[in-house]
Amino acid sequence: MAALRERLTVPVLAFGGILMAVTQTVVVPLLPDLPRLTGASAGTVSWMVTATLLSGAVLTPVLGRAGDMYGKRRVLLIAFGLMTLGSLVCALTSDIGVLIAARALQGAAAAVVPLSISILRDELPPERTGSAVAMMSSTLGIGAALGLPLAALIVQYANWHVMFWVTTALGAAALAVAWWAVRESPVREPGRFDTLGAVGLAAGLVSLLLGVSQGGQWGWGSPRILGLFAVCVVVLALWWTQQLHAERPLVDLRLATRPRVALPHVAALLTGFAFYANTLVTAQLVQAPEATGYGLGLSIVATGLCLLPSGVTMLLLSPVSARISVSRGPRVTLAIGAAIIALGYVVRIADSRDLWVIILGATVVSTGTTFAYSALPTLIIRAVPAGQTASANGVNVLMRTIGQAVCSAAVAAVLVHHTSLVGGVSTATLHGYLLAFAMAGTVALVACAAALAIPADPASHDTGQSPGRTAATRDEALEGA
After folding, report:
1. For residue 354, with 0-12 CB atoms within 10 Å meaning exposed, 13-18 middle and 19 or more buried, which class applies?
2. For residue 295, is it left (φ>0), alpha (ψ between -120 and 50) or beta?
3. 30: Cβ contacts below 8 Å, ≥ 6 apart
4. Which residues share a beta bridge with 155?
5. What's this model's pTM, rounded to 2 decimal places?
6. In the prediction, which pLDDT does 458 show?
7. Confidence of residue 87 (pLDDT cuts 50, 70, 90)
């Protein structure tokens, strides 16, 4: 029985990561119909996405730190429980206020991936760690690609509450199998939890992401948006000072600002931006009316199926990316991934009218994302002590989230300024979409440069030595530094 549980650890955690991404994605096809279904305005309904984004961004580093201190399995089960509870509440109500609160609960699931990566580092032998971490990190993209067609099918052919009943059942299953199969890691970082640091980080992140996500709707020059950004700067400056003087900080900034940790965080932000434009723009492009001259007029279900090859590609290529990291080193894998993302956008710019080329370009971008996302946690694992793995990877996932939020705002700003009237309706032009692709491709190239600037691992000299093999010596070196 113990051997079976050990063999199931990786599949169970990967299932949880995919489910987390699915849960975040499934509401997207429902957004156009929610004003009619709930009696709320379109602006209010948009908070079904914003609430999950905000709570996930805040809770990912907080729950990661709690996992390092109080037990990663324990906090993982809490995250699964909150996600499942949120789905259940959504399945039972049509009240928009309750729905938004429930979606905020689901945001806690964003901590599943960094907690799972930390568990894999602690529990698996070195020869299995690289491929397992690569798979776990790729679940973010896999779940996003699979969630959209699943949700579209349910929304089109069943009552919209069925979608949340499905995620509730899947969440309960994930909670049960994780409780049974995942062992508690003995690696802990003792001390008192930094409550003040958690509150300060939450306030700063909420101000930042709220301003970024609502800027297009409220107006970038409006007092509310400018006020939010001002609050963000002041609060995060005070938080930074507090963290430097805290005995047990929420985020070890001295460690986080070292090039071997800071540059992967920068690369995560840039890669998150570059990846998200692929899904965001593709969905809008293929659904545009044929009267535009470039749109294909596809249904929501057909749009989801267009993105399905991207999810399958990420699933199949995560072991390949792990092997590249073993042979050439994770920073090389990250650089290759970012370069492939840029290549994918070259394909998108070359032809965005033929469906097969659109799918090809989107799949190339997903291929690069697989390589980049699989390398990021390995870089973090090699650069931080074992007792800070979950919190450090939580910050890395947070940077991807911020990158996606900024991408959403940037793409919206580009498309708003490049529109034309089609049948009396203002519609984005093909030129606007191509500019968005060019912007995302440029960001991917900057991510590639950031990857190449990451210092080589002194223990393995970028030969791809498994992170588990050098954990003891690395932790000793960091503690002595």
Report:
1. exposed
2. beta
3. 37, 48, 151, 155, 160, 163
4. none
5. 0.85
6. 62
7. very high
Tokens 């969440």 -> residue: 171
- Tell me the per-residue pLDDT of 276-333, one tens digit each, with 9 for 90 and over: 888 888 878 888 888 888 888 888 788 878 878 887 888 888 888 888 988 888 999 9
**Cα separation of 376 and 261, whole Å?**
10
Please say whether the beta carbons of 436 and 349 come within 8 A.
no
How buried is 369 (Cβ within 10 angstroms: 0-12 exposed, 13-18 middle, 19+ buried)?
buried
Contact 116, 278 (CB under 8 A): no
Tokens read off for 75: 């906090």
